[in-house]
Design goal:
By secondary structure, this protein is of the alpha+beta class. The chain has one domain: Gcn5-related N-acetyltransferase (GNAT) (Aminopeptidase, 3-Layer(aba) Sandwich). It is built from five helices and eight strands. Strands 1-2-3-4-5-6-8-7 form an eight-stranded mixed beta sheet, with helices on both faces. The radius of gyration is 16 Å and the shape is globular.
């Protein structure tokens, strides 16, 4: 794997390892992270280990850790899931689990790096995501990273008894793939 780093944002991406399990479980269970996910259930170590065994190790998912360039401190994760080799596409996801890393452009920089990885190394053509339509900060970040709004799915999910709209977004590679 090439090196994916952004000097200006002060971050780099590295592949997730089994040693990251406890961090990922802790991050995903933080209220400020979980509230932005469609999947609202609490994470467990066993559930994450199943994810690694059944998704990551089978090539259906690539998950990376976002780290500080100077200290190597991890503070979040980016991933692509449901990798479709027939249509050369995958779904993108991100979470910043450390409060001090939020609101300073880390998410935008990590998304740009992950898109570069997806297009250059995975040779994917299309990366899409779903985000709550009222999560305007995330939508702006995704747009800065290269994603475009494609559609609005009205009342698409029911969270805590309330229906919520989902904004569908995607980034498409300029390269004509196989």
């Amino acid at each position: 794997m090439k090196e994916y780093r952004d000097e200006a944002a002060g971050i780099y991406l590295r592949l997730m390892t089994a040693a990251d399990t406890d961090l990922i479980v802790a991050w995903r269970n933080k209220d400020f992270v979980r509230k932005n996910f469609i999947y609202q259930e609490l994470f467990t170590r066993e559930g994450h280990e199943d994810w690694v065994r059944n998704k990551v190790e089978t090539g259906q998912v690539v998950q990376m850790i976002i780290c500080d360039l100077l200290t190597d401190t991890p503070f979040g994760s980016v991933y692509i899931r449901d990798i479709d080799r027939v249509h050369n596409k995958a779904e993108y996801g991100i979470f910043i689990g450390e409060d001090g890393a939020r609101g300073r452009g880390v998410g935008t920089a990590a998304a740009r790096l992950m898109l570069r990885y997806c297009f250059e190394e995975e040779k994917l053509h299309r990366i899409y995501l779903r985000v709550y339509s009222d999560n305007l900060q995330a939508i702006r970040s995704y747009e800065k990273a290269g994603f475009a709004r494609e559609g609005l799915l009205r009342d698409d999910v029911r969270i805590d008894g309330k229906y919520r709209d989902i904004q569908w977004m995607a980034a498409v590679s300029d390269n004509v793939g196989p």
